[in-house]
Write a structure and sequence with these properties.
- By secondary structure, the protein is mainly alpha-helical.
- 40% of the residues lie in helices and 0% in strands.
- It is built from one helix and no strands.
- The two termini are 29 Å apart.
């Protein structure tokens, strides 16, 4: 979901920089998936 040419490239072990992680993109994807799952199957 976040990988690819424009996605997040993880840091080497021990060299993490969590401030560079695209948290907004990840959390938006979770909200979108949660919303889709909670509304599916309802009529």
């Amino acid at each position: 979901m976040l990988y690819g040419s424009d996605g997040f490239v993880p840091n080497e072990p021990g060299r993490g920089r969590p401030g560079e992680y695209p948290w907004a993109v990840a959390l938006d994807a979770v909200v979108e998936a949660w919303s889709a799952a909670s509304t599916s199957g309802r009529s």
